Amino acid sequence: MIDARCPMPHARCPIPDARCPMPNSQLRIIMKNWKIVLLLGPIAGFDLPKIIGEIVRSPEVLIQQLLVGLVNGALIAIIALGYTMVYGIIELINFAHGDLYMLGAFASLTVFGAFGIQDGAPLSVAIPVMLVALVVCSLFCAGLNIVVEKYAYRPLRNAPRLAPLISAIGVSFIFQNMGLFWGGLKAFIPVMGSNSAAPKSFPDLLPRVDILKAMGIETTIVFTTKDLIVLVVALVLMVLLHVFVQYTRLGKAMRATAQSRDAAKIMGINVDQIIALTFLIGGALAGSAGILVGLYNNTIVFTMGFTAGLRAFTAAVLGGIGNIVGAMLGGVLIGVLSSLSDQYLSSRWTNAWVFGVLVVILAFRPGGLLGENVQEKV
Questions:
Q1: Does residue 300 contact residue 193 with C-beta atoms inside 8 Å?
Q2: Which neighbouring-strand residues pair with 210?
Q3: Is 184 helix (H, G, I), strand (E, B) or coil?
Q4: How confident is the model at residue 166 (pLDDT cuts 50, 70, 90)?
Q5: Partner residues linked to 281 by β-bridges
Q6: Nearest alpha-carbon partner for 287 in 208, 183, 201, 175
Q7: Dihedral of the CA atoms 268, 87, 84, 179 (nearest 10)?
Q8: Each residue of 228-269: pLDDT tens digit?
Q9: What does the alpha-carbon distance between residue 304 and residue 38 come to, in Å, rounded to a whole number?
Q10: Beta bridge partners of 259
Q11: In a 10 Å sphere around its CB, with 0-12 CB exposed, 13-18 middle and 19+ buried, how is residue 317 labelled?
């Protein structure tokens, strides 16, 4: 295709963007990605006529997958908030955050074991213990995150960016091995089982009442009280964080520190305390996500932090790293994309499709969906 104002094909057009519909770099990326889609699409299950036919025949399945993706996306968004908050304050990608969430799940299981809570426990007994477990694992993860910030990240704050990044990877391995060790403490915590590396059974405490059937709606779509509880709790946590950051004095100090630490110091803000507060909030959210995922999936394992952390980091980048609302949006999108891929494409290729969509979006929005494309001056 040749533009009347541009005598050369777009892929080679040397005329500035004002007269060409798209920059050359974006056109090249589009053409390259399109070729990859045409080549790998059929192998990865991307058969558009077949997918459209399935949706037309069973629209309820599409709605069901959207609901599943929404719930899972909300859980991913809670974890992604920890990534985006820390990066927004000190521009550090805290790779240990996913494994911190895993430790939160182990802490909550330990609390349930201490109270002797098992599957099918009455709600009158389960609800107080769940609240206690939520507080305990949130405080545990928040305190652990503050300790890591003080002794692993703060001494490297003025070092080259690679140094704290490597430190974060090291902390991630430490946390993962803590989870492996924790899972082998059968003598002290019987609920952990005999094999330290094996998945742990999490008590099934949330009710599974089908809301739509209870309302008299006859449909194959299943949306239970368990889904609703997890979705509401996740939404409340995200809204509370947004309100705190936007409308409180400490939230204003956090935003000021994120803009310029030097300027914040001049204005009398204790930057070290604000950074510690950010890690505290991020750790508390990771602990909350740990207990929610345990109650929702009813199984945990010491390696769960890697996969969840990878998707949460992807969600933070997709929405705009450093943007809280963007992390929420990115988490929901990742959850929905994964659910639709599992249903209509191939579960083996889900991660490839998710990251493929990420690459395409970042080609047009390098700062993410809600991030700002800020040019750095040399």
A1: no
A2: 224
A3: coil
A4: very high
A5: none
A6: 175
A7: -110
A8: 999 999 999 999 998 999 999 999 999 999 888 889 999 899
A9: 33
A10: none
A11: buried
